[in-house]
Amino acid sequence: MRVGFGVLGPVVAWDGTGGVIDVKGPRHRAVLARLIVARRRVVPVTRLVEDLWEDDPPPGAVGAVRTFVAALRRALEPERPPRAPARLLVTEGPGYALRAPAGAVDAWRFEQVVAATSPPEETLERLEEALGWWRGPAYAEFAGQDWVRAERSRLAELRLHAVERQAEARLALGLAAEAVPDLDAHVAGHPWREDAWRLLALALYRTGRQGDALAVLRRARALLVEHLGVDPGQGLRRLESDILHHAPHLDPVSGTAAAVWAQAAAAYDRSVPPGARARLESTVSLMRELAVTGGSGLEAARRHRVAAIAAAEELGDAELTARVIGSYDVPAIWTRSDDPVQAAQVVAAAERTLTAVPPGAPEATRARLLATIALESRGAHGVRGPEAARQAEDIARRLDDPALLAFALNGVFMQSFGRAGLAGRRDEIGAELVALSARYGLVTFEVLGHLIRLQSRCALADFAEAGLHAAAAERLAERHERPLVGVFTAWYRALRLDATGQATAVEEASPGQATAVTVDATGQATADEVEAAYREAAARLDGAGMPGLQRGLLPLALLCVRVRRDLPIEVAETDWGPYEPWIRPLVLLARGRRDEAAAALGEVPDPPRDLLLEAMWCLVARAAAAVGHREAMERARAALAPAAGELAGAGSGLLTLGPVTQHLAALR
User: Range of 161's domain?
Assistant: First the structure.
């Protein structure tokens, strides 16, 4: 059960469904709040006693704190078996720590949103959502406590800064009129913030209210002089002069990216009739850019893509439909669809269109439809996906079309999982993509090539080379605003820590970047260290818009950590997502249900042909060897034999079960 915590208002805890968890009385909430303030660090019991009873702690205060902690553990982890160690509110050294993931506390998420840099549209959307998380003053019921005073002040200042950043985003987007009411209330409540006065005056000026803007600046000057005895800062003085002289840079249609976008969009709306077919093709171009932003942008692009295809088919123009389908050449790295139903709809539409386009249609049009079929058929067991990928690649090479070839190679990659042990082949695909894309400026496909090589080098246990590709992908992502890349590189670093005991490669480490981790006598990172790294990586998936990657991934990674180290397997009810059929036998064994485990092994299907193919077979092999299920052992041995030189699961770039040879040895 994923637990969330709210401190932007009264302190509260929520369960995975959003229901409020009963954390008992005010002392229990005080302990919880104090541990959240510590931000995952250990708080000694003695300090908890001092903070909870500031004046005169009773003789049994230490015992009372332990009682509060025990009650909190029962409330936060109700499914934890008796005597099993707590995994959220942990005992460590002289005290306790709340090991909540980065995204579990609303204040921590709020801080991340305010610190993030992104285009104005995304900034405005995220800040509006984040400001809505505030339910009152932070840590509201503990306002008079010394231990929370500094944190409350910091969060209050952060909120004021967020309000001003929200106003800046609105101004950048030409929404000055929308900014005025909030800024008016903001300066009324916080009259000493000069930047707030500046933004309000600028917003008024951009709505045509020059007199009101100047009056605001005069009011700000009077308050500062009369109450603080200081003159307005340079920013306010310069703005007043610029308003009086109608400085061009104050005009909302100056050359900012947001203003140019707004003007171009308005011109398009005026010039292109609403029912024009050109709008469909333009929409696909917009969706391509929207998809690589992640989060709500990726989800919206998927949703509008299907609608655009349906609209094109309704017009009865097969070539237009082919262009609408084939123009969505968004690179894909993960081999499980985020929406299988939608993917099937796209494949069906592409197949219909292939048969409908006239014989004289451009070959490139057909190739793009075939590449789409190959991409959207990822993980399937049929022959159509590989066949479509080969045909698209052949056409692209014959036409000598770099952009088309990059798209086709993405389809070839998605269909390169016909059996285990093909990491070397995928490395070749990634290398060609990197070289081709760098030569012709195909940035998104260059990023894809680096991520493919990262995965394949991990499978081949070449983490030094994988680290170089991670760093190269991140440099491109930063330069070209591709935020989803950071999700994959964060998981890669957790995998590297798991496999090598090193937090990062020497080649990719930044100056001053910490690389020290706790390692055991074998030179491997401890299970706790690795699990924490995976949890941090998983937090990056929240809101990333990739459910096909996110669902079940963290529990699978944590299971692999324990299986590889021969540690007890978690037997609590867990959402294993799409991986459940191959995990079930091991979980049944961990619960002592050997006969049911054997029955499950007899029914286990072949795993999907994807990046976790070897990992799923290794989990089956582990259970089959423990039960002595000969048929399942033979199936696993035959499937895994071609991958004898690889690390199981590491080809995903996300997790590992160690060398495949170890699992094969257990099957002999």
Answer: 1-170
